[in-house]
Amino acid sequence: MNYEKFVEILNRHIFMEGKRALVKNLADHPERFIGLFRPTRPRGKILQHILQSHEIKFGDALEEIMSEFLRDWGYDVLPKIIFTS
To answer: How far is CA 9 from CA 15, 31, 59, 66, 81, in A?
Structure first.
């Protein structure tokens, strides 16, 4: 995998659509950003949402990067969903 592909994967997973998704989540689910059981201020909840979202997206990006490396090295990558009910 070349550097441009690596950067494209990271940018697509981590930085694209982030602000739009946050605003959409705020509009669709405002209850998520109000601390009901813990006294958390909305600013803290928004920050928590952004950080957790970036952690998850970073993990997704690493998954795709490793899949690309494995394909480049001649391995077959199994589908993410192996078992269906």
So the answer is: 10, 32, 11, 11, 21
Distances 56 to 15, 52, 53, 69 between C-alpha atoms, Å: 12, 6, 5, 20
First-last CA distance in the chain? 35
Closest CA to 24 of 35, 15, 33: 33
Locate the DSSP E strands across 21-79: none
Rounded Cα distance, 49 and 45, in Å:
6
Measured in whole angstroms, how far is the alpha carbon of residue 15 from the centre of its chain?
9
Neighbouring residues of 68: CB distance < 8 A, sequence distance ≥ 6:
1, 5, 9
Domain ranges of the chain: 3-72
pLDDT digit string, tens, across residues 3-43: 999 999 988 888 776 677 777 877 788 777 665 666 677 77
